[in-house]
């Protein structure tokens, strides 16, 4: 095992539970990455608990932290990962930081999870949307919005596979982003028993790749992949953060020889394994009449218990990956 690549992750942090950086650091470290983190907010827990308190990292504190990293020569990263940011000024400064780090290491890749909302509900100030569009997206090497976030960033409505592909094509052409991944879409896909399936879409344009080529460097055709997987009957938090860090973990391991179809399958197998283990644990607690835990606490991701599956996920016949 060689020297670990260095990653900077900028997103939320919770003292208890697994969202944001708490959902990211353990899986990346398991995959042999050295992870530094800047916490855009520090909260006691995620916001669906009965009580949630904490602090927001100020713009001044962000500037001070990064300036110290820079002065110490500690800002040479191999990859950047960003997630939840709730302040427009913070996001503007983050764009400058990404540019500065890319200047230090031009081969550094920027993985952007533009956390804006989900299921038709936006949970950040709307002022963040034009900042993402104008300042953040043009810097991204890999963009990982969910269905709702992709709609907010493009103005396109995603109702079927054709509109999902059109949305990704627009993000490619407008912002020159080589890799677009719609992390989760709810479109009319069903298994043989009629159960709802969710879909992840990946679109890669090698002609837009400046500092990386995934797989075949001679190909100039757009690669498109769809992965469908079961929709589980529960609400989880931190899943998007986990998905985005797994994308980084696998993509950075061997960029030139990556098989995106196999990688996407492995990632979805890991996700299903973690979520099924989490759901089984929650079901046991729900069946216990003496359990006093809050519902949100019962559904915290079982990351530590899933360490083996994060590294080597078991296969799931219910997950289907198709080249389009």
From TrEMBL:
<feature type="domain" description="Pyridoxamine kinase/Phosphomethylpyrimidine kinase">
    <location>
        <begin position="83"/>
        <end position="187"/>
    </location>
</feature>
<dbReference type="InterPro" id="IPR013749">
    <property type="entry name" value="PM/HMP-P_kinase-1"/>
</dbReference>
<dbReference type="GO" id="GO:0005524">
    <property type="term" value="F:ATP binding"/>
</dbReference>
<keyword id="KW-0808">Transferase</keyword>
<comment type="pathway">
    <text>Cofactor metabolism; pyridoxal 5'-phosphate salvage; pyridoxal 5'-phosphate from pyridoxal: step 1/1.</text>
</comment>
<protein>
    <recommendedName>
        <fullName>Pyridoxal kinase</fullName>
        <ecNumber>2.7.1.35</ecNumber>
    </recommendedName>
</protein>
<comment type="similarity">
    <text>Belongs to the pyridoxine kinase family.</text>
</comment>
<keyword id="KW-0067">ATP-binding</keyword>
<comment type="pathway">
    <text>Cofactor metabolism; pyridoxal 5'-phosphate salvage; pyridoxine 5'-phosphate from pyridoxine: step 1/1.</text>
</comment>
<dbReference type="InterPro" id="IPR029056">
    <property type="entry name" value="Ribokinase-like"/>
</dbReference>
<dbReference type="GO" id="GO:0008478">
    <property type="term" value="F:pyridoxal kinase activity"/>
</dbReference>
<keyword id="KW-0418">Kinase</keyword>
<dbReference type="Pfam" id="PF08543">
    <property type="entry name" value="Phos_pyr_kin"/>
</dbReference>
<dbReference type="GO" id="GO:0009443">
    <property type="term" value="P:pyridoxal 5'-phosphate salvage"/>
</dbReference>
<dbReference type="GO" id="GO:0005829">
    <property type="term" value="C:cytosol"/>
</dbReference>
<dbReference type="InterPro" id="IPR004625">
    <property type="entry name" value="PyrdxlKinase"/>
</dbReference>
<keyword id="KW-0547">Nucleotide-binding</keyword>
């Amino acid at each position: 095992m060689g020297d670990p690549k260095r990653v900077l992750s900028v997103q939320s942090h919770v003292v208890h539970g697994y969202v944001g950086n708490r959902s990211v650091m353990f899986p990346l470290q398991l995959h042999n990455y050295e992870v530094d983190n800047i916490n855009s907010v520090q909260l006691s827990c995620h916001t669906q608990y009965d009580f949630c308190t904490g602090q927001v990292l100020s713009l001044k504190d962000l500037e001070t932290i990064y300036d110290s990293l820079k002065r110490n020569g500690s800002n040479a990263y191999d990859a950047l990962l960003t997630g939840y940011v709730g302040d427009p000024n913070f996001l503007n400064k983050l764009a400058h930081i990404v540019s500065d780090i890319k200047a230090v290491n031009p081969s550094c890749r920027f993985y952007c999870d533009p956390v804006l909302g989900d299921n038709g509900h936006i949970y950040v100030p709307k002022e963040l949307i034009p900042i993402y569009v104008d300042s953040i997206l043009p810097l991204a090497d890999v963009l990982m919005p969910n269905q709702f976030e992709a709609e907010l960033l493009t103005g396109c409505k995603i109702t079927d596979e054709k509109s999902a592909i059109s949305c990704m094509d627009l993000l490619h052409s407008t912002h020159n982003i080589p890799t677009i991944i719609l992390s989760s879409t709810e479109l009319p896909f069903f298994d043989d028993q009629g159960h709802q399936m969710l879909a992840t879409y990946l679109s890669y344009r090698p002609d837009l790749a400046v500092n990386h080529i995934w797989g075949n460097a001679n190909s100039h055709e757009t690669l498109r992949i769809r992965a469908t997987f079961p929709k589980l009957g529960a609400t989880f938090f931190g899943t998007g953060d986990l998905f985005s860090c797994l994308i980084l973990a696998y993509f950075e391991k061997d960029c030139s020889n990556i098989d995106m179809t196999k990688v996407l399958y492995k990632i979805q197998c890991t996700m299903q394994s973690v979520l099924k283990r989490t759901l089984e644990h929650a079901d046991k607690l729900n069946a216990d009449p003496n359990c006093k835990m809050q519902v949100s606490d019962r559904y915290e991701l079982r990351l530590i218990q899933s360490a083996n599956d994060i590294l080597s996920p078991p296969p799931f016949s219910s997950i289907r990956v198709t080249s389009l």
